[in-house]
Amino acid sequence: MGVTEARRFLVVGRVGDNSLHRHWVADTATERTWDLQLNAYGHDESKIQNGDLPPVIDRGTKWDSLVRHFRAYPELLDRYDYVMLPDDDLMMDVRTINRIFEIVVQYDLTMAQPSLSYESYISYPIVLRSAPFRLRYTTFIESMSCCMKTSFLKRLLPMFEEHFTGWGTDLVWTMLMEDPAYRAAIIDEVSMVHTRPLYVGPIYKTFAAQSIDPQQEIVTLRESFENTPDAMLIYGGVLRNGRKVDGAEARLRNGLQLIASSPRSPKPYDTFRFGAGSLLRIVTRAGFRPEQLRPVAGSRAALWFGKSNAS
């Protein structure tokens, strides 16, 4: 499989027949810094011919399909520095994606995601755009549009081979690197729109057909580590003017912003509650700094992320 020589970044879109990926590349006047490859679960192959690399047809679920993708083409994880893995119901454009890659390089992030706009369908208020920030350092990166160093994705592939729903992985993966502090962030300077209502995508029909319980995968992954956090936390940030702030100021600004914005949130009560919780954690999580997760002895996680395998 050929690759573009000049670009350091790769976007692999997991796409169906109604995918929005055409919008990602529609602005042909703006130079892209990234290559696009489509990993397709749809049936109309005429809709997946606008990538830079040849499309791949795989009608499994997102994460087991992506595992097969990178196992089949391991050179992709050597050629590119970062890879972004967006779902097909996300509205973004060339400038948005360019800026995401600029920021992850500038701040040497191992993982990141763009924030969600207030027009989006959301699962977790933590990912809603927080206007005071350029980015917020976090223990939680959602799986719908994660961006990560390719070297780190290599380490995660064994986990996805067994936990291929992806559920639960976003609760732990920001802390699987050796020194996770300030390595994962939600990027507020740019945001995307999640256009599809929750729990209605084709993947949920696949889970049901295969009698897969994603909630059980969450439980299994959380129980695989001794020190899994009991909450999604913000522990620092960079303001729009470039000034870095510590955990207390980040929680204060983020909490107040969420409370003020909760009436226009798609989940007003949850957003207000998370904002209030952020204020409370100024005291209860004072000085919090994420640490590498410790796999439970004898667990599958110990095989993947034990000390001998840590990078």
Blueprint (SSEs and pairs):
Elements: E1 9-15, H1 21-24, E2 34-40, E3 56-57, H2 62-72, H3 76-79, E4 82-86, E5 90-91, H4 94-106, E6 111-116, E7 133-138, E8 145-149, H5 150-162, E9 184-194, H6 202-209, H7 214-222, E10 234-239, E11 244-245, H8 247-261, H9 268-284, H10 300-305
Parallel strand pairs: 1-2, 1-4, 2-3, 6-9
Antiparallel strand pairs: 4-8, 5-9, 6-8, 7-9, 7-10, 10-11
Record keyword descriptors for this entry:
311 residues; alpha/beta; Spore Coat Polysaccharide Biosynthesis Protein SpsA, Chain A; 19% strand; globular
Report on this model:
By secondary structure, the protein is of the alpha/beta class. It has one domain: Spore Coat Polysaccharide Biosynthesis Protein SpsA, Chain A, CATH 3.90.550. It has 10 helices and 11 strands. Strands 1, 2, 3, 4, 5, 6, 7, 8, 9, 10 and 11 form an 11-stranded mixed beta sheet that branches. InterPro entries: DUF707, Nucleotide-diphossugar_trans. This is DUF707 domain-containing protein.
Distance between the termini: 28 Å
Given as residue ranges, the uncertain stretches (5+ residues, pLDDT < 50) are: none
What structural class do you assign from the helix and strand content?
alpha/beta
Taking the sheet with the most strands, its summary is: 11 strands, mixed
List the total number of helices.
Answer: 10
CATH topology tier name: Spore Coat Polysaccharide Biosynthesis Protein SpsA, Chain A
CATH class term: Alpha Beta
Radius of gyration: 19 Å
> What is the annotated CATH architecture?
Alpha-Beta Complex
- Into which percentage range does the β-strand content fall? 15-25%
Mean pLDDT: 91
| Count of the separate structural domains | 1
- Element order: H for helix, E for strand: EHEEHHEEHEEEHEHHEEHHH
Question: Considering DSSP H and I runs of 4 or more, what fraction of the residues is helical?
Answer: 25-40%
For the secondary structure, the number of strands is 11
In one word, what is the shape?
globular
Protein name: DUF707 domain-containing protein
InterPro entries: DUF707 (IPR007877), Nucleotide-diphossugar_trans (IPR029044)
